[in-house]
Design goal:
11 helices; four-stranded antiparallel sheet; alpha/beta; 2 domains; Alpha-Beta Plaits; Rossmann fold; single chain
């Protein structure tokens, strides 16, 4: 076994009656690595994370967390894991400090251990000035940071985060990701008994977050469809993505989709991303400019663009379907 690997799973499967939630899933995550799990709703991401932390029992397959096997050594494995579920349950009548103290004591920390550890973690997540505020009076972003603090209080080697920034504002999302990146940095400023960086497995619906990961895995119908470095996945569509700005955008999109060399056209904010057949970018640009003049549509700009991760996953979904 590679001792740098903190998460190992092989041929993992889980069904709920007739629904195959996870199907022969295999992946590995190393110390100091952020691995992003992405895919459409119902792909099996949450079930996978719950299997990893021992909340669900697998039908088949192997899970090893920092050398401890689930289910044979489930309690030892759980001691290595910090888990932040989609709906983290705070005790709203308790203060920030009382909440994190509760989770510290549940994890078996003595008073001599939990108090300095709690203060260190609250400072790390930026809540040290709010120790006496009731959890029910925290903003959504602050609640998520408290959830992260609770997941980190026992110094885990593996961090499992299930869509941790869903429903929070963009600024808080950025702050939260800065914390995650600091956790895997070589100069990690919060103490760790084993003096080694953590492994982070995070599921996310946001492609800009997936781009921050060292590797991403795309799940669909419980299966791992593809995994790799975000840059490698994006560049597989190099030369095939056009970006178009103009008016009216919905009409321009329909016009583009009618071109035989256009595979897809999607709204990207105030512009279109158009995927064309390989080697057809210049031909399509010329034709769309011509078509727009005939129909009196306005194209203010159309040019080749760098593929985004979202472009790749839309393409991947179409290939699967």
């Amino acid at each position: 076994m590679n001792m740098g690997l903190l998460i190992i799973t092989r041929n993992l499967s889980k069904s709920f009656k007739s629904t195959q939630a996870v199907n022969c899933l295999s992946l590995q995550v190393s110390a100091g690595e952020i691995y992003g799990l992405v895919g459409p709703d119902g792909a099996g991401k949450t079930t996978t994370l719950r299997l990893f932390c021992g909340a669900l029992k697998a039908d088949e397959g192997e899970i090893v967390i920092n050398g401890f096997d689930i289910p044979q050594q489930v309690e030892l494995a759980r001691s290595q894991i910090g888990y932040l579920p989609q709906r983290f349950s705070l005790y709203e009548e308790l203060t920030v400090m009382e909440n994190i103290r509760f989770f510290a004591e549940v994890r078996g920390l003595s008073r001599q251990e939990w108090k300095p550890r709690c203060m260190e973690i609250l400072q790390f997540v930026g809540l040290e000035l709010f120790t006496n505020r009731r959890a029910g009076h925290l903003s959504g972003g602050m609640k998520q940071k408290l959830g992260l603090a609770a997941a980190l209080v026992h110094q885990p080697q593996v961090l499992l985060l299930d869509e941790p920034t869903t429903g929070v504002d963009p600024v808080t999302r950025q702050d939260f990701w800065r914390l995650i990146i600091r956790l895997v940095a070589p100069s990690n400023e919060i103490s760790n008994n084993n003096k080694s960086p953590v492994a982070v497995l995070v599921s996310t619906p946001y492609m800009d977050e997936a781009t921050r990961c060292a590797r991403v895995g795309f799940m669909k119908d419980g299966k791992m469809v593809i995994e790799g470095q975000p840059e490698d996945l994006r560049t597989s569509l190099s030369g095939r993505i056009l970006e178009l700005e103009g008016n009216p955008l919905t009409s321009l999109r329909q016009m583009a989709k009618e071109d035989l060399d256009v595979e897809d056209a999607q709204m990207f904010g105030d512009r279109l991303h158009i995927r064309v057949r390989e080697g057809k970018a210049k031909v399509v640009i010329s034709r769309l400019n011509e078509y727009s003049q005939l129909q009196e549509f306005e194209i203010s700009r159309i040019s080749e663009a760098s593929p985004q991760l979202e472009d790749f996953f839309i393409y991947l979904l179409e290939q699967q379907d």
